[in-house]
Amino acid sequence: MTKKPSDFSDIDRALFTGIHGPVEIKKEERRRYLGELKERVVCSLTSSQMAKPTLDKGFVEATDRDDISHIVLSGKIAFQDWVNKYRQRANEKDLPVRTVNDPELRGDVRLIVVQKQC
Q1: Which of 19, 114, 5, 31 is nearest to 65 (CA)?
Q2: How many Å apart are CA 27 and CA 93, to the nearest integer?
Q3: Whole-angstrom Cα distance, residue 54 to residue 23?
Q4: Domains in the chain, please, with CATH?
Q5: Per-residue pLDDT band at 53 (split at 50, 70, 90)
């Protein structure tokens, strides 16, 4: 029978962490949402939604909120011309934009708006 890391003693947990690295919470969820937890994502967009000529209505509404922390952009599309309008909107609202380049990311989400707290 295999023990889970939560069943380990303090010494076993320290050894496990040293060998395997820290236990990641909701790893698959973070892979889908550009490293963020789903609970904090207010708006998520795919590249096809972002490529439309106008800003996505959900994105505009999300960036108007007062509880927004930052915007995360996938490195796969970070330098496309049509991304500039989203960066410009973030700058107008004084929201930092973070670009994530991680080969383990999954799914077609390319931009998310993240709130400060769940």
Answers
A1: 114
A2: 30
A3: 41
A4: 28-115 (3.30.1330.30)
A5: very high
